[in-house]
């Protein structure tokens, strides 16, 4: 077996053919892309997840109640009740069903869970109304599910109130007070405008933090990181090379979400798309820094994945404000929420995307996020270097 | 006389009160296969990290390929190769891609890199597998490939950290043939191992116990000194006195 004359080409190695940092970086980034594109599971998480989440949050998980079964117990049986019932039936929220039930029987239907909301009209409804007396319509709802109960009773009250107001005007009564409500930015009170920014924060958090952490820890596990560190390749470039591919892939994700949001959920970007992208890059950088931080602290892919999930996903869901309003939380939890980067990003995305506001409206949040990004980047790179010493 | 390629002079690393590597002094000549033995926790890894320029000595000095590891770690890195016990290639990259990547990291580029890649594949008789993923190769082949990649850039020294873990004696023997060829070309081989049959193959062997260098000589003379039949017995005699466990 003849051995290669390793030294024969030596002179060409470190002088004229020296590869620059940039070329090495390009080589490394190319390698990272190969890793991602060859791993089906990674690809699935990377591109399947945003689509899934948008569809799930957009369609399946919604506060809106449509076509709820509404039971009407009509003791009045007159013109006025008929008109009101017709109106309830016409709304897309309810499927009205008229029954003649005694109060105990009605309660039994509720107990069996067959009905979520019932409307009871008293006897002599029209007559009392015509005589200008106060007349009450009873709305009964199953509050074991408080959110649905609130939503349904609000729908019923709104319809009844509208009807009453119209009647009063039609009869030219001199008195009357009218409340005119305008729901800004989201007149239909749809769920999607709320969820899209939330999903963006969630997906970016997951993809960036988990993928970055796992991809670095994987190199620890396979021993390749050691080889890279022993090589002349600069450690800080290892970080950059790991971050760049996931930054690009995350931007692709942002694009996917925005396209889906516009076409499928009919929630277009009201504000400046470029500003939104710039803010997204800022947030992605925070996530990448967090991912690097986790990778430094852990030495197995499973642990890195678990920490990313528990440490990032939960706070993002709980404290970003898109599931649970932060204003209603006890003060200590509000303080924690302030430390969650996703909270600030969520506010920013909502302002730009839903309200169509510009940088003037979100500069404070942007500053907070930028501060967090700088802080986490600093800590992560420092920890990464300390681990080398 | 030719300058030693590795010179360690009272090389020491302390972590707080713990002295991981305790004033070790030794020289390694060019083209030598130097066995670096020791039980787990004896301070081998720490010493090797210092020699590779990854870790700064607490005191003492070391010169590797003519450069001080404390003051010129980047020059040291440029002149050494490294292979870890996990054979350290990317499993989902092809053989050719791995060679290109690691060659590039060490500053090689076309046409030199292309020539070297073809030579390497030809020598390992892996031409047919150039476009196969490394993950699909048998472990023995991965290790041979990893070693060849580690010396692709013509380092003066190659550091091997337990390179043959988990392979059968026959494949190990083949691997050692590679080491001998490299040494014959003037590449110094610095190798840690747990296999005492491998210790017999080294030109010289050092044995670390509790951070100190307890013995350093040729395998033959070590056996004479300790009146032992094999390197296994030599190692056992020395390591038995160790205070530190894992």
TrEMBL record, chain B:
Gene Ontology molecular functions: ATP binding; ATP hydrolysis activity
Spans traversing the lipid bilayer: none
Domain ABC transporter intervals: 6-235
Keywords: ATP-binding, Nucleotide-binding
Database matches in SMART domains: AAA (SM00382)
Any matching Pfam family: ABC_tran
Domain of life of the source: Bacteria
Entry keyword annotation includes Membrane: no
Record InterPro entries: AAA+_ATPase, ABC_transporter-like_ATP-bd, P-loop_NTPase
Protein name: ABC transporter ATP-binding protein
